[in-house]
Amino acid sequence: MRFDTVTNSAALPLASSRRERWSAIGTMTMCVAMLIASEFMPISLLTPIAADLHATEGMAGQAISISGLFAVIASLFIATVAGRFDRRRVLMALTGVMLASLVLIAIAPNFAVLMVARGLLGITIGGFWALATATIMRLVPAADVPKALGIMYTGNGMATAFAAPIGSYLGGIIGWRGVFWVLVPFVLANLLWQWFSLPSMPPRATNPVGKVFRLLGRPHVAIAMVAVMLTFGGAFAAFTYFRPFLERYTQVTVPELSLLLLGLGVAGFIGTYYASAWVGRSLYRLLMGLPLALAAATVAMLAFGHSFWAVAVAMVAWGALNAAIPVCWSTWLSRGIEDEPESGGGLMVAAIQLAIMLGAAFGGMLLDRISIAATLIGGAVLLVLAALTVGSGRRLMGRG
């Protein structure tokens, strides 16, 4: 049973409607988990993917980059496209593209097909994330938006915590292709859940692409996007190549690698929890301090890279710090561009995905041309530059 679209000013009084509404939030949460798992699974499978497709590890890392490129394009144009169709159909179409991408990855005969499949995944990533916040604002009353967003980000945390270690472990048993086949039935189940749970959300006024770019004319928004790109670019320049670092420096086995990635992911729950608790009163200090602390954790991994337990501690810290960053920037978005949530969301997603793409490419170039140590140092430098860009936070405050 479907329910009518709800605006922020009106809530459905019936308990059954409320249950249906939260079921819709549940299916979005599952979609987030599948997206995160699909997007970053190659990080835990980088070495076997490279070997099987006859590519360098740096080239395999570009599978992260290419999804970022298409995510940037999708995030910039999705608001304009979605404004002409029922939002329910748009979200289901995006999930269908993700399903097709996973099947294509699993059967990829060569590196070129893998890149095409990752490009399709990027369309879903950019499109979904650009619409997510605005969609939730249409599903629940204003008072429930923070709770709904928190539930949706739980899917992010769960996938971050378990996708990489499970992928690494299963990859050693059923191969990297088998790991992607495992994801297929879950995405299919999510698509069916969307069919039964998502309400009809009729199109509203179109949202021109130019509106997204006009936001950059606001000085505080432009500076924020630079800081966002440096932060996420630095993080993913390092994170994308954690597996080759751990295999070469720490000389971990596959079970040890899975354990380290699990620790990193579980720590993300801690980072998300404390960021949510502190962000209301310390937003700008967190936006400046988190990249600095993440840079320190990255350098610590390199400095103590030959000690398993020292690296484990550094990775737990890294996971907690990294998970806190999206919470802080999402909060800034709700304050800094509150008058244009869909355009602001598209711009933020575009900046993040472009940063992931360039960061992974930068890290891969340093890995192939210099060393894995250069990759981690390069990521740390970008993170320090991000902190300097944020500064005291005054430049990120709008005039309103």
UniProtKB/TrEMBL annotation:
Keywords: Cell membrane, Membrane, Transmembrane, Transmembrane helix. Its main location: membrane. The chain crosses the membrane at residues 22-43, 63-83, 90-113, 119-140, 152-172, 178-198, 219-242, 257-276, 283-303, 309-333, 345-364, 370-390. It is a multi-pass membrane protein. Gene3D superfamilies: MFS general substrate transporter like domains. Pfam families: MFS_1. InterPro entries: MFS, MFS_dom, MFS_Efflux_Transporters, MFS_trans_sf. Residues 1-397 form the Major facilitator superfamily (MFS) profile domain. One of its GO terms (molecular function) is transmembrane transporter activity. It is found in: Cell membrane. The keyword Cytoplasm does not apply. One of its GO terms (cellular component) is plasma membrane. It comes from the Bacteria. Coiled coil: none annotated. This is MFS transporter.
